[in-house]
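User: What would this chain look like folded?
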Amino acid sequence: MLFNSYEFIFAFWPITFIAYFLLNRFCPPVVGKLWLAAASLFFYSWWSIKSLPLILGSIAFNYLMGRLIGHSGSKSPKIRRLLLTAGISGNVLLLGYYKYADFLITNVNSLFAAHIKLLELALPLGISFFTFTQIAYLVDAYRGSAKEYSIVNYVLFVTFYPHLIAGPILHHKEMMPQFDRVRSKQIIPGNVARGFFVFCIGLFKKVIIADTLAPIATQGFDVSTQLSLVDAWSTSLAYTLQLYFDFSGYSDMAIGIALLFNIKLPINFNSPYKAVSIQDFWRRWHMTLSRFLKDYIYIPLGGNRKGKVRTYFNLVATFLIGGIWHGAGWTFIIWGLLHGIAQVVQRLWGKTGITLPRWSGWLITFLFVNFSWVFFRAKTMEDAMKVFHGMFNFQNIGLVLNLDLIGKLLMIGATFTIAVLARNSMEMKLHFKPNLKYAAYIAALFVFSILYFNQVSEFLYFTF
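Assistant: Here's the prediction, encoded as structure tokens.
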């Protein structure tokens, strides 16, 4: 089930909301949690019920490992580390089997002229996100900062449907206390208004902006065999903007939906295309993934505590793992490697003492991010090289003005301006007031988005 669908907006969401607060009013608190957990599993199964046993098995495994780790405090550190290693290994193997098995087989076949048959496994929905969420839980249990003794609570933590498919990546310690607050058991009108406001902004981003940019990127990456200078830059910029408005739109909708249940999800985007350095970009882009990579990969590898060379290695290794997490393909590996190298280059540049004007820092960062997204989007290396060749093909500028090109350039220019200059949704939420002005604004966003439901499209990160 998609957030941008009639069945979700007009049936599933209102039914789960009303039933949850009615149960909280007339039944013990655990009943409301049980309802929300069951509804979340139904939401997940709507897309593919075949994946339901997988997520339930993953939940059971991690709940059991978390309990074992939590109760092993009095045992030797070696046993606790062994339990943590077993838990993380189980999650990584599950993710690796479904997401990377065919990639490995393809490369083995290519290197050794083998003929191993591909498994052709369907990627379970949201597996990357619920796997990372549960790895974080196991590590927190090992560190003593997360303990969960209720299976209902744990299932709800993992499956809470606003974040289940594409994040944000959550921490147990920041989520479950919110479900247990007495005040959260009743409808809070202010949260309902703010939540619906943020949801409508996200819906507009996805349906009106991202889905309008999508055909431009698709034409350039997947259809055209060669691109002129203008076509190539339109293609890369369209995808750069599509990805931002699509994924940040999902995050806004997730935050808005959760707020109606009085749950505050962490912010996942903070105007990343306003970043003035690559480090600044990763403080603003997919912020919960950046937090995960830092806390559970970079720091455990040694962070910056073991000298400069090791720090640089840890940075590259962390972003390389981040690239691999995003997808099984050399293009994702290159994308992650580029961002890791960029982190090292920024630190080396900082040692020169040379300070660039703020505008040039922004321009270099944006151009680098835009170039790297080409690898992220391209299905093959050939597709990526096709776009890059066009971006520097000054012999074929391709500036033949017609209505199609003018509309394309205006759309890219308008959305670029919004991404770079306008306030983001979280900044707008801070200024939100439940009055007639904002009510009209919400109504306009909602009605316009609903009328634009000419086709229900998936979110880009559903396939990661």
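Residues 221 and 383 are 6 Å apart (CA to CA). If you want, I can go into more detail on any region.
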